[in-house]
């Protein structure tokens, strides 16, 4: 059974065709700069990858290009579209309507449209993909998997802000949380890896990529997460500030005369690793700059680790203890230095890294020492596979 997974960003469309009998990726690709004259399309796996330069004026055009590439006589992976049995779409915002993945119906589409207000760049892109697939492959089952869904299990004490009720009831201002598909995937894999039932485990999953979030997971259910009403809250990220005193925003308006667009750009695009280091949003560059003696870069690393520690500590207490801490995404999977920086000095709390295991590379692995009370794991994330698994489960 082959499942096509589409992940539409504001100006991109990533895709994977997955054989769900083996969970092997048949082919994958990426359309970038959709809607601009510089659009291009990369298709294929590793050495078979080819770059197709063609105009992609819209997400609809990008879906067409993807289907053409998949069935292309030279570099395609399937003879025709009848070899695709189901389609999964990543949708960023499901509001509080969806606590799990669903088969797409007109009602689901209407709800996703309604949530576009909360994710104005991402939900319309996903809707364009859903609509195009519906037109081009009307007989296929389509499934929506939401970044917010996994966090719908949070209790009100975690998702409500300390604001008067009308802001929640009329304006839907609450914590939604994001990266839910990644947190859910690594939690499930961690349970398999530890050979323990997920519903008995207390986990803290650390998704540290360009965007960063931590989630406290009790018995397989998200009970708190660091991103909030938007993906700006919480940890320091590549270019996002994460949480700051909200009164700073008032100060920027009143004293510096900044408007909302300027403040939005400052907090979303010009802060985080990039803003503090004054050099790059890429952890590797910032680490190299710090090693070369750049004090701003060194401070950026300190702030980044401190923010993770802040949420880790909070979630250990919220969960009443923790069985395993799981690192994932670009930084979480690859940066032994950052993992060490975050977890150094926690031996008194039963969290002991093994330096050699931490430095080694590989797939799913333990990086804590044998006598560490709390296991520390690295689990590479795979949101596409999680979506494809949901499609398979719903098609049954
Ligand atoms: P993601 O959003 O998951 O693709 O993660 C992107 C982040 O991962 C960037 O900040 C990269 O610098 C970081 N990253 C990727 N590979 C490495 C590596 N080998 N060491 C340190 N950071 C890395």
Structural notes for this entry:
With 396 residues, this protein is of the alpha/beta class. The chain folds into two domains: 2-146, 2-Layer Sandwich (Nucleotidyltransferase, domain 5), CATH 3.30.420; 196-378, ATPase, nucleotide binding domain (Nucleotidyltransferase, domain 5, 2-Layer Sandwich), CATH 3.30.420.40. It has helices at 59-70, 106-114, 123-136, 156-159, 165-169, 180-194, 247-254, 260-269, 272-277, 283-291, 295-319, 329-334, 336-343, 355-359, 383-395, and strands spanning 2-8, 13-19, 24-32, 40-43, 50-52, 86-91, 102-103, 141-146, 202-208, 212-218, 221-225, 324-328, 365-366, 375-378. The strands form two sheets. An eight-stranded mixed beta sheet has the order 5-4-3-2-1-6-8-7, with helices on both faces. Strands 11-10-9-12-14-13 form a six-stranded mixed beta sheet, sandwiched between helices. Helix 11 packs across helix 13 (336-343).
Please supply descriptive tags for the structure shown above.
alpha/beta, 15 helices, binds adenosine monophosphate, 6-stranded mixed sheet, 38% helix, 2 domains, Nucleotidyltransferase, domain 5, globular, single chain, 396 residues, 8-stranded mixed sheet
């Amino acid at each position: 059974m082959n499942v096509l997974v589409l992940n539409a960003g504001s100006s991109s469309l990533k895709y994977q065709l997955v054989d769900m009998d083996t969970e092997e990726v048949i082919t994958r690709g990426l359309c970038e700069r959709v809607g601009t004259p510089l659009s291009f399309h990369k298709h294929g796996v590793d050495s078979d990858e080819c770059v197709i330069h063609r105009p992609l004026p819209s997400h609809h055009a990008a879906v067409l290009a993807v289907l053409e590439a998949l069935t292309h006589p030279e570099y395609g992976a399937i003879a025709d579209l009848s070899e695709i049995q189901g389609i999964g779409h990543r949708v960023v915002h499901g509001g509080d309507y969806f606590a799990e993945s669903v088969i797409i119906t007109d009602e689901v589409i209407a709800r996703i449209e309604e949530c576009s207000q909360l994710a104005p760049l991402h939900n319309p892109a996903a809707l364009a993909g859903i609509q195009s697939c519906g037109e081009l492959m009307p007989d296929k089952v389509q499934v929506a998997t939401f970044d917010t869904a996994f966090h719908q299990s949070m209790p009100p004490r975690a998702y409500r802000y300390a604001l008067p009720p009308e802001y929640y009831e009329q304006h839907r201002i609450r914590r939604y949380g994001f990266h839910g598909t990644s947190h859910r995937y690594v939690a499930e894999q961690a349970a398999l890896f530890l050979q323990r039932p997920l519903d008995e485990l207390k986990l803290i999953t650390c998704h540290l990529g360009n965007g960063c979030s931590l989630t406290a997971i009790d018995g397989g259910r998200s009970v708190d997460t660091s991103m909030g009403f938007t993906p700006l809250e919480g940890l320091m990220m590549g270019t996002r500030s994460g949480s700051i005193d909200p009164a700073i925003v008032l100060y920027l308006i009143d004293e510096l005369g900044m408007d909302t667009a300027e403040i939005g750009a400052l907090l979303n695009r010009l802060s985080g690793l990039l803003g503090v280091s004054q050099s790059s949003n890429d952890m590797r560059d910032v680490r190299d700059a710090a090693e070369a003696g750049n004090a701003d870069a060194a401070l950026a690393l300190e702030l980044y680790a401190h923010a993770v520690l802040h949420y880790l500590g909070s979630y250990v207490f919220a969960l009443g203890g923790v069985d395993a801490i799981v690192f994932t995404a670009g930084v979480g999977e690859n940066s032994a230095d950052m993992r060490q920086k975050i977890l150094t000095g926690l031996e008194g709390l039963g969290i002991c890294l093994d330096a050699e295991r931490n430095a080694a590379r590989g797939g799913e692995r333990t990086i804590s020492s044998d006598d560490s009370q709390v296991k520390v794991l690295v689990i590479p994330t795979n949101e596409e596979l999680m979506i494809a698994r949901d499609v398979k489960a719903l098609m049954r």
